[in-house]
């Protein structure tokens, strides 16, 4: 794993200068297999297939995660993000307000799993590259 690429992706994401699919492509090329965004601690943990791990803080303020998981609100935030109507910071605020406490991105599996505090979840498959 290339920590410089990971840090670049994290910084570009939080400043709204890169899309999700661009992040995935860069992380995949850097041998990142999956990553977890913990919205309680505002950290991202990256994992390689060879067992390497890197955790870094998101430079964003923490928010209280809503107690009820509202999958429809999460899906709406995903669509708005995909269509670049909102940036990553707003996306995180919206999914946290919708009860997402963490999400896991599986690069090879091309899916993201969003989890609520009670184990509720929503699975979203990657959009096709355009």
Features:
single chain; 130 residues; alpha+beta; YdfO-like fold; 6-stranded antiparallel beta sheet; 4 helices; globular
Number of domains: 1
Structural class: alpha+beta
Q: How many strand units?
A: 6
For the largest beta-sheet, the strand count, sense and barrel status come to: 6 strands, antiparallel
What would you call the shape? globular
Q: What is the CATH superfamily label? A: YdfO-like
CATH topology group? YdfO-like fold
User: What is the overall number of helices?
Assistant: 4
Q: Helicity level, as a percent range?
A: 25-40%
CATH-level-2 architecture = 2-Layer Sandwich
In N-to-C order, the SSE pattern is HHEEEHHEEE
Low-confidence stretches: none
Proportion of residues in β-strands: 25-35%
Rg over alpha carbons? 14 Å
Name of the level-1 CATH class: Alpha Beta
Cα distance spanning the termini:
26 Å
Q: Mean pLDDT score, rounded?
A: 93
Strand arrangement, major sheet:
3-2-1-4-5-6
Summarize the entry for a quick read.
The protein has 130 residues and is of the alpha+beta class.
Task: Provide structural commentary.
This protein has about 130 residues and is an alpha+beta fold. Helix content is about 35%, strand content about 30%. It has helices spanning about 5-15, 20-30, 70-80, 90-95, and strands at about 30-40, 45-50, 55, 100-105, 110-115, 120-125. The chain has a six-stranded antiparallel sheet. Strand 1 and strand 2 (about 45-50) form a beta hairpin. The mean pLDDT is about 95.
């Amino acid at each position: 794993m290339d920590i410089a690429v990971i840090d670049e992706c994290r910084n570009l994401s939080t400043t709204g200068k890169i899309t999700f699919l661009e992040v995935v492509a860069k992380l995949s090329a850097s041998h990142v297999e999956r990553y977890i965004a913990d919205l309680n601690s505002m950290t991202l943990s990256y994992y390689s297939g060879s067992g390497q791990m890197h955790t870094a803080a998101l430079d964003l303020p923490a928010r209280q995660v809503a107690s009820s998981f509202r999958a429809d609100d999460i899906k709406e935030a995903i669509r708005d993000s995909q269509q670049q109507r909102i940036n990553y910071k707003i996306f995180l605020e919206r999914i946290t307000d919708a009860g997402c406490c963490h999400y896991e991105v599986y690069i090879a599996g091309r899916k993201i799993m969003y989890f609520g505090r009670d184990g509720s979840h929503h699975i979203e498959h990657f959009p096709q590259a355009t």
